[in-house]
């Protein structure tokens, strides 16, 4: 089991570094940006890291959790964290759009809502700080633990149903 810890710690630190770099690659409200979002390259690197987390979380949880009761508690805790994190993200994103509107109004004495919607679209450089922050980092880790816990829970449930 100790062999699992070092790769997990390295992967967590690497993921934290990617989240930090993507966050700082964003632009501040009121700033103009060039063409494209250079952080997309780092975003793509998070996909294999996510798969890595799922694989090692699965190995870890199969060794650690022997009771289905503890899996249920983990699922409840992870779902609660993901829901609270998601609600917070929605609230923070709406506040950020309002901030952009205020900055735009101060500069031009009008608000171009189409422009605000455009710069807050998914891969825009203006929203890097909204999608890659400390909250989304922990949500990323929680989701990568949630999937293997559900798989283990389903496997045990199927095994129990087959044996009875």
TrEMBL record:
Transmembrane segments: 36-58, 70-91, 131-154
Organism superkingdom: Bacteria
Keywords: Membrane, Transmembrane, Transmembrane helix
Protein name in UniProt: DUF4199 domain-containing protein
Organism of this sequence: Evansella cellulosilytica (strain ATCC 21833 / DSM 2522 / FERM P-1141 / JCM 9156 / N-4)
């Amino acid at each position: 089991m100790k062999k699992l810890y070092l790769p997990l710690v390295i992967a967590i630190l690497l993921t934290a570094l990617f989240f930090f770099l993507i966050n700082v690659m964003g632009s501040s409200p009121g700033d103009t940006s060039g063409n494209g979002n250079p952080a997309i390259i780092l975003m793509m690197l998070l996909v294999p890291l996510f798969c890595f987390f799922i694989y090692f979380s699965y190995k870890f949880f199969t060794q650690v959790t022997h009771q289905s009761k503890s899996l249920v508690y983990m699922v409840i805790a992870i779902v609660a964290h993901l829901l609270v994190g998601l609600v917070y993200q929605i609230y923070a994103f709406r506040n950020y759009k309002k901030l952009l509107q205020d900055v735009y109004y101060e500069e031009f004495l009008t608000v171009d809502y189409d422009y605000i919607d455009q710069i807050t679209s998914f891969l825009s450089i203006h929203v890097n700080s909204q999608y890659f922050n400390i909250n989304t980092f922990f949500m990323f880790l929680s989701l990568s633990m949630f999937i293997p816990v559900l798989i283990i829970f389903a496997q045990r449930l199927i095994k129990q149903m087959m044996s009875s």
